[in-house]
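Good morning,

Both structures are done.
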Amino acid sequence: MSLCSWLALVTLIPVISSTNPGVEIKLTTKGLEYGRQLGMASIQQELKKINVPDFSGTQRVSPIGDVQYSLSNIQIMNVGLPTSAVALAPGTGVTLSIGNAVISLHGNWRDSGFFDLNVNQLSIASSIAIKSDDTGRPEVSNTDCTATVGSTTVKFHGGASWLYNLFSKFIDEALRNALQKQICTLVVDAISDLNPRLKSLNVVAQVDQYAEVEYSMVSSPTVSKYSIDFNLKGEFYNIGKHQEPPFFPTAFSLPLQDSNMLYIGVSAFTTNSAAFVYNRAGALSLYITDDMIPKGSPIRLNTRTFGAFIPQVAKRFPGLMMKLLLKTVKNPEVTFEPNNVTVKATGTVTAYAIQPNITLTPLFILDLETSVSAKVFVSGTRLAGAVSLNKMVLTLGTSYVGEFQVRSLDSILQMVLKVAVIPKLNAQLAKGYPLPSLGKMELVNTQLQVLKGYMLIGTDAHFTG
C-alpha cells in the first residue's frame, strides 16, 4: 500500500479524551524514513497524471511579425524525484518536501513537428494536518502546499522549428505556469486519497467468538522532534456488548528509543480487560473428563483413584467414572513486572460421579487459588502467549461425602491442571489477538520486553501490498 499505508499508520491520531490509554504507540524517525522510501513511488505516479491542455495563440516575433503557434498532445514522459524528505513538525503534524525534481514532457506543434520540455529543480513543500473523525479513526488534510519550478528548457524539432525556437522563452513560461498550477492540486488529491484507506485500520478487531479488541483513539497525539506518540483505547469487549470493566487504565509512557520503526506498549489494563470479558462470557470454565488424561497415567478420573484419598467416595459410588468442573469465580488478575508476567486466578473445582444413566452426582467443591507464569511473544501481527503453573492452593468449600483432607488431593489436581487444563489454555493463547495494524503489514525484527505495568514491543514494519 506504499505511502498510503505508511501515512495511515503515521496518522493514527486519537480523539481528545481524558481517558488513559491501554495501548501506546511511538512512531520514530526511522519509521518515517521507511515511509518516505515507500512514498516516493506513489508520488511519482501521481505527478505523471499532470495534464497540460492543448494551447495556441499568436506571438509577435521581431523582425518577422506575428507568428501563430499551436501545441498539442502534450504528455509527461518521465518524473524524477532524487531528493525528498518527510519530517515531524513538533506540535503540528508531518511535512513533506521534494527537491531537485525533474519532469520531462513531449508534444506536437502545428507544422507536424514535435517538441521536448525539461522541467528542472522542481521543489514541492506540503504540510499535512492530522485529526480524528467521529468514529475514532484518523483523517488527514493538506494545510499548505507550494510548488516552485527552478528552470525549464524547451526545444522544437522538425518543420519550421527554427521559427518556434525564436520565441521558445514565451512558450517555455506558458508551459511552466501550466505545470506549476497542477502540481499542488495533485499533491492535495493524493493526501485526500489517504482517507478511504484509513478506514481499513482495525479500530475494532475480532479476536474469537467471545471477544473483540478496540483500538479507537483516546487522546490527541504528541508530536515531538523525534517521534509521534499516540494513544489507543486497547480494551477488550464482549462482541456486541461494550460493558466497561470495574477498573481503569493507569497512565504509562514509553521510553525514548529509536532503533526500531515502531514501539508498541500494551498495558496490564488491556490484558485484564480480556480476563474480564472472558470471565463474563463464561469462557473460563472447563469440564475435565478422563479421556483428557494421558492414557499412560496411573491416575484416572474415577471413584477408585479418588477413593484412595477419600475412602467414602469409593464406598458410596463404587466403579464410577468422574468429571471435574473447573471455573473461575472472579476475574483473573494479570500483573507485569520486569521480565515477569504473572496471572492469579481464583476458582472452584466441582467433582461429580457419573451415574450409569449419565446424571451427575456432586461429590465435593474445592476452592482453588492458582498462580501461573506467562511467556508472551509476537506471532505475525498478533500478541500470543503460553503459561506454566507456579503454585496451587486448595481448600474445601463444600463436601457431600463428609470431611476429608484436602491436601491429599494436591498431587491429583496439579496433574490435572498440567496435563488437561494448561495445554488447552495454551492452545488458545497461541492463537493470540490482533495488534493495531493496517493493510498488508508485517512486523519484522520484533523484540518484546516485559516492564513494570506494561509490555514493550519494538519492531520494524514491512508492507507487502
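Second structure follows.
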Amino acid sequence: MTVGFAVKWTPAEGRARKIVFDPQPAKNRWRRTEFELHESQWRQVGTERVDTVSLTSETAHARDTHSERGVSDE
C-alpha cells in the first residue's frame, strides 16, 4: 500500500506553506496539492496530477548532486 506525505515550511517572507502528495491508486498517479496558511486555516492554492513521486533524504540528494557534477565521495 502506497502512503501519501506532506512537506511543510515557512519562508523568510510570507505565509507558511505545505505540499501534500496523495496516491491515486486507481489511476496509478499522484495528486499534488499546495496549501497556504491563512489565520490558522490551511487554504488550497493549487493542485495538479503527477505521474511519479520520489522522496529522498538530504544525504541522498547531496550524493546525487555530486554525481551529476562529476564529483566523487572517494
